[in-house]
Amino acid sequence: MDVGTISLVLMLGLVALLAIGMPLGLASAILAVLVLVMKFEPALLLQPWTFGDGLLTAKPGTGPLNILAQKIYGLLTDYVLISIPLFIFMAALLERSGIAKDMYNSLNVWLNRTRGGIAIVTSLMAVIMAAMSGIIGGEVVLLGLIALPQMLRLGYNQNLAIGTICASGSLGTMIPPSIVLIIYGLITETSIKALFTAAFLPGFMLASMIIIYIIVRTQLNPSLAPLPIEKLTSDLSTPNLSASKRARLEADLAALNAQPAGTEKLALFAAFLSILTAGFTLMMFLRAAFFTLAGQNVSREGVDDIALGTAAHLPWLGGIFLVAMALILFVFGREKTARGWLMGKGLVPPIVVIGVVLGSIYGGITGITEAAGMGALAVFILMTLYQKTFSGWVGTVQGALIPIIAFVALLIVLPHFVVAGDREWLVKLQVAGTFFLVILLTLRIPAVRDGLWDSLLRTLRSTGTIIWVTIGAAALAGAYTIAGGPQFVADLIVGSDMPTMLILLTMMVILLFMGAFMDWVGIVLLIIPVFLPIVQRLPIEEIGYFGELQPKYLSVWFGVLFCMNMQVSFLSPPFGPAAFYLKSVAPPHISLTDIFKGFLPFICIQLLALTVLLLWPPIVEILLDWGQP
């Protein structure tokens, strides 16, 4: 059977199976078998009793089926794939840790006197959360639980509140570490680190567009986002107000008026930044000093120097640390610095998690999978620390002081009874024993135990869904590739004499349409193997209107462009997943129709960002080429 007929049957079959509600993974697997049969043994369709006489069934384990099995096996055994459940697990732990709530409170303190401040805080919080885990569903739900009630209570416009939460919550698609970019990199064999680097500027550009839209719209129409002080004053002027409610509102207004404002708040924020700078540069200085003393940062040909870890960095790090300490001690003073720390300390745990995940990747310390594991462990430790105050942990350590001393003594004494040949085994035993002992001790805290169990179950469900969709979609994409489908589509489009930008625009429309009805996992596995070869055959000089893209970054640019397109799919009716995530935690009076209506301005913003990426492709090269000779 010819490839054109197979392509038509495949398209109609996919639409029909999804329309009747069949899961994408199962529908893809069924169509994969159908494509192989139509291409290599069509007699089975009309004469099934001929099973075993054709190319497909004559020798099981060979031929097209063997090629397909190898493709699926290779995808599922890729080491980077392990990072996906780890990032999902990290996001689930974040929801239970209390980190997000403290971060929201700290951001709110700094922006509570700004028009539209709560919406801006929500967007900033979404950016930080995206840089921690990159899981979209969890972000939308968490923002819906924390920010939506606050915005509605302060009298924010419902559409503005809904659109801000869902549009900002979907930024995890673009801002690294993004699972969409990881899957794209696996399928197309593109450097995931390069994809992460290239996606930074477009991702923050989109986030900036959302924040600018909020600022401009609320300034033009202040009634959309009343200031907290305006809302409290208005509520106090309500007639027939009960004495208890009036007392509560007056107390809230007095507390708000007592908070710093203007230059005083700016000075406190500068003091907080000085503390962060001093802490960071001190850690980097000690790290560089250790590498220098250990001789691990000696420049070698073909090996990159350790980032911020060479002897040349020591004077710079030490100087910045001394300047920050001078600002703390002699400019801001201890009292103001302590107050600034109390106002901003909720931002420290997210910064630590981002530093662990992205810092370990770009610092050349670990790969993406190891960074995901380190991030999950960091969030688990923070979640544990959040369960008690500092004095509470001091009391806990004091209560278990004898077992701790005994365990440390055992670690010190045990090596003296082990022969030299068993040292490696001993080190592994010590590390594993320490790790499991700490885990067992933390699991004695009920909140940690319940949070860990719930996070593991959610990770299992989410990962299972992604894996089954991956298997089915990979099978279908592989079968269609073996049948010659991508080459047929490429010849059809390239041979149509359409301008290059019109071809790309057609692809974007197809992706937008598919995104409104299909999960992104299926799209990246089914559509990208067909579209990317077409893009690679287009004249590189005709891609974009401003600047020229370097050929080596073509697949990277298309991956970022695809992710920007998927941003729109999370808000696109009728099956925009962000709407259903928010609906699960929204008040009963907010319907799905209300949620989709709130999306409209933000979909336009996303389309504008997509247009910028189409017209100016070299935006993805800026950070990729930065620092290169």
Automatic annotation (TrEMBL):
Gene Ontology terms for molecular function: transmembrane transporter activity
Any one annotated GO CC term: plasma membrane
Domain of life: Bacteria
Signal peptide bounds: none
Domain TRAP C4-dicarboxylate transport system permease DctM subunit: 13-618
Protein location: Cell inner membrane
Pfam families assigned to the protein according to its UniProt record, in alphabetical order: DctM
Record membrane topology: Multi-pass membrane protein
Keywords, alphabetical: Cell inner membrane, Cell membrane, Membrane, Transmembrane, Transmembrane helix, Transport
Transmembrane parts of this sequence: 6-37, 72-94, 118-148, 160-187, 193-216, 266-294, 314-334, 346-365, 399-419, 425-443, 464-483, 503-532, 553-575, 595-616
Function: Part of the tripartite ATP-independent periplasmic (TRAP) transport system.
Stated name of the protein: Tripartite ATP-independent transporter DctM subunit
Organism listed in the record: Silicimonas algicola
